[in-house]
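Hi F.,

I've been meaning to write this up properly since the lab meeting, where we talked about keeping a consistent format for the predictions we share between groups. The idea is simple: the sequence comes first, exactly as it goes in, then the structure tokens exactly as they come out, then a line or two of notes. No screenshots and no reformatting. I'm using this chain as the first example so we have something concrete to point to.
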Amino acid sequence: MKKLILPSLVAIALAVTSCDDKLDIIPKGETTLNTIADLELLLNQEYAFGDGPLSDIGMVCNDGFPAWTDMSELLASSQTLQYAYVKWDESIDRATLTTSDSRYNSLYEAIYYCNVIITKAPEADGSDALRDLIIAEAKVKRAYFHYLLVNIYAKQYDESTAAQLGGVPYVDIVNMEVTKEKNTIAEVYDRILDDCSEDIINVLPDNAAVNRADKAFGNAVRAKVLMQMKRYNEAATYAREALRYNNNLDNRSNIVTTEAWELPWDSRNNYLHIGGGARVSITFTCMSKELAKLFSPDDYVRKYEIGWNGLPTWEDSEVEYGYPEGLIYTSFSDVMFNNYGIRTEDMYYILAETDIRDGRVDDGLNYVDQVQLRRIDGYTPLKGSGLSIAQAMQKMQEAKKVEFFCTYVNFFDCKRWNTETDYRSTITRDLGKYGSFTITPDSPLWVMPFPANATRYNPTLTQNY
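Output, unedited:
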């Protein structure tokens, strides 16, 4: 039976021609890229997906709220996605309101680039060594992009239910006349693990630029995937291997003397940098009241950075934006946050959590300390403080939530912890005069809706919540 075409991929075929004018798509998805050197150009991208986590998933996990918008404006209409996410209102028909989704489209566009390389490289002219390398890189990136998709648009992986629950289409072809049907969560994860196997990771170079894939990135992808599958010991193995190739941590202590926080997109702690749309800076991002309470007053940025107006750059968000008692970052400096990518700190927190779970509390807390020492002036290490496993997990979770503000990480963590009896929790949000709201571990809001411009052309793309 002939399948309907996925409209996002049709859009991709029209959009990707802008990449150095090298990708000349003809109707069935064929391209004129016939050399390895030309195909490699498709990997030299500075990725940016969607409008940033605070446009939806960051609100759901209570990280914070979008920039430039007053809370009263967010709540002015009950028929908006932002209203649903601010109030955690499950009654709102999010699928109807999601006419399109630039993050969803951008992810499948990036996957399309990978598939062009994987499909055409075997017959392309050029170096065999480079051929193998770009195929391996394309597969690992394809794995990572699908990892983001399945965790945003489907439920959390659980071994007992993954084979029955809907995931996302795992797209591995460039033929524009065929649409991949939606796979189960289990099928998606199986394919992800195939694309970032040890054999493939070992083909990657020892070191590469932050927009390219190397062994640190490949091992980090596999670590994060296994972590989300709750295969904790395996995840730790690959996290340690990733750090063997790149152990650079972002050190913010120099802000004491420079009074400026500089975080370029190609910082060496980034394994792969992916911004959230055109705005990859965190300027005017707003922390929630609850997350702000976890933010140390001795944080190097909060304590020492001076903004354009001569004032500290973290300010009370209630003054101008009506976000009760949260924090808003007001600096115009080039702080290029890694919204959807991977960085060294990810691996430290994977090892922190896995060690703590295994009862090696001080070993786990030491990983937290190594990051926090580079974040907080006069930091007192947690290692050796005699914390129980439960207490250490709480301290780790609190530190990690601040560390990964304005990224996808906190959303993914909450979904994973919500499937575990010891760590599932109902989140309460206090919005002062606007009211108090809660979200339960089983809320459908933990799954983002597929956009209508995709579902109307693909009957298999039913919503996963």
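Notes:
The mean pLDDT is 91.
The CA atoms of residues 100 and 228 lie 27 Å apart.

If this format works for you, I'll send the rest the same way.

G.
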